[in-house]
Write a structure and sequence with these properties.
Layout lengths: L1 E3 L9 H12 L9 E6 L15 H19 L4 E6 L2 E3 L1 H7 L3 E5 L3 E3 L10 H11 L1 H10 L3 E2 H6 L5 E3 L4 H12 L5 H11 L1 H21 L4 H11 L10
Parallel strand pairs: 1-2, 2-3, 3-5, 4-6, 5-8
Antiparallel strand pairs: 6-7
Helix pairs in contact: 1-2, 2-9, 3-4, 4-5, 4-9
Length: 241
Amino acid sequence: MLVFEHHPGNLLTGEIVGQLHAALTDLTELPHLRLVTIEGAGADFSFGASIPEHAPDAIARVLPATHALITALLDVPAATAAVVRGRCLGGGFELALACDFILAGDTATFGLPEIALGVFPPVASVLLPIKAGAARSASAILSGNAKPADYWERFGVIEAVEPDASLAAAVDGWFSRTLEPYSAETLRHAVRAARRPIVEAVARDLPEVERLYLQDLMASEDAREGTRAFLEKRHARWKDR
């Protein structure tokens, strides 16, 4: 079990991203490992990336590190599951999407609010169409609207939704029924096979999406305005350029 904590809202700062990456790397030498769970401490999974780190000077460092974390998560030699309580937004939702499974509490909500900041979610742009279909992916990315866990469960993005109060026990029971009976060696190969469409899409598409974000979008006035407006607690004044 990996639990990350950064108040408020378990923000995925560059530091947290680095710590998660290091923790995942340490898992490669555990031969009996069948499942790795990732969860945020407290009431919420994650509010997403740190807004100050969306600034052009910081994002050029943080975004590649975040994408390296996603690649490391897809390389874990065991099944992975995000255990989600509360809000799972932006980069937090992207982290959960990179897991093989999402197990959620019944009050959890998932969304990609980056559009309101003048940007978009690069990892979700690659992963969500595979997991939820192009239309639902476009709706989530372009509207920024959050949806409850049962919405995403209907489309197979979420494996199970359980009452918040019994989520930990439900995760244990789910593991006992679905993964624990099987060979860890077999599971290592099976997860590699099952992830192939996602791994190939990330390798093929994420570098271009990252380039679009860092070189094209971050050169625009509106990308910088979105971050400034949030930090100054005002409505953004878009110039559409």
